Amino acid sequence: MIEGFLLGLYTALSVKNMLMVIGGCIIGTFIGMLPGLGPMSIIAIMIPVAISIGDPAAALILLAGVYYGAVFGGSTSSILINAPGVASTVATSFDGYPLTRQGKAGKALTIAAISSFAGGTVGAILLVFFAPALASVALLFHSSEYFALMVVGLSAIAAFAGSGQVTKALLMTIVGLALATVGEGAQFNMPRFTMGIMDLQSGIGFITLAMAMFAIPETLFLVLDPSRSGKAGSKQSEITDLRITKEEAKKITPVIGRQSLQGFLIGVMPGAGATIASFLGYAVERNIASEEERKEFGKGSVKGLAAPESANNAACTGSFVPLLTLGIPGSGTTAILLGALIALNVSPGPRLMQDQPEIFWSVIISMYIGNVVLLILNLPLIPYIAKVLTVPRSFLIPFILFFTLMGAYIGQNNATELLFLVGLGVAATIFRFASFPLAPLLIGFILGPMLEDNFSRATQLYDGVSFIWERPMTAVLLCVAVLLIVLPAMRSRRAAKKQAKG
Description:
There is one protein chain. With 502 residues, the protein is an all-alpha fold. Helices cover 75% and strands 1% of the residues. It has helices at residues 2-12, 15-32, 39-53, 56-81, 90-101, 105-138, 143-154, 157-160, 166-180, 206-224, 246-268, 273-288, 291-296, 302-318, 320-326, 332-343, 352-355, 357-385, 393-412, 416-433, 439-462, 467-470, 472-501, and strands at 183-184, 191-192.
């Protein structure tokens, strides 16, 4: 192992591969900021370039750099303009954008950069020491466990529901699950709820829904409320307060540690990915926070920003475990990377570490180098990136609308998607006026198809729902889901009783 590690270190530190990491991070960061072009799209676009390089190690290092850069770029658009272009950065916008509105965009971007770096670093270290062992654990997860894991993810809605809003959050989750059923189902391969519209057969695009839930209402609010825009001299447009205070550093350090570990373990499980890791990270930190700190979540909590950022980056690293050691893609993005590896005549799996150690280890080492490059590149650039907020309202609104419409169109390559975007955007604005939380809707929509697929596979395998009590790990995960819903409700009731007595 040590010989292979040193060989990988030598390969990763070559001038050519260092340039690949830096180039990949820069390309990924800037393209990742554009809503609609998530890591999957960017990597798919870059595959011909990577294959033309010819060297599998260099090609994979380039694509891994693009992957990391794109995830970080997605966080930037979530924080600055409330337009998450990637599912894994939706949770980042919950507290990142409120911080921007408080005139702390620089601080939010700094926390995101440091949390991402720490999450990626912890992930890379764990990958080096535990990759082979974790791969065998990941194989213990079957459809029933994945179904239970999705239920745990949905139980996170309790974390996004404010005081007295649990019912509204549940309703929005159901709406999200219902929207996820539009199109062809995995079990019957028949169109459902398409109302005869051909363009709905492939379902509603994630980018369309995410833009409709966040970017369109924000644009309308900018029109209706001029004080939200970045007028010169306004609080939001001020780019000050870049540094994290000692008190804030103390607050986020344990969060980063916990969520880096949790995010990595979730990323290791094939199919789970960075999205669930970020939502669960946010939910767990909110649930274990003190009463006073919990009130800050959703209003600009530094903990609420650090948690999903650490978790999604650690999960990105973790998703390479099943890819490199078993040849199983851990997420949609790593599925595309698997295709690139096969095109480069590399067979990922248990033999990769022995047969081509320079590829296995150089990719892992380059992940850490990529995180360092992202931190070095982005920290000095934060004041310049945040300057987007000083753009006057008359320019900012068309800018957001242009990228929103472009993102929705590129996502499905279909003009009808623009009509869906406008319709869903208007509905989301009405929901916001009525104080309905929008995050649970998006969570239901993202997790719905995975929930349905795994549930149908599990019921077919066990000829019913007996897997719930026949598979102990499934039962444990479902109990965790129940606890995640019940505990916050009990805590709220206890707090209400105390308030009534006091």
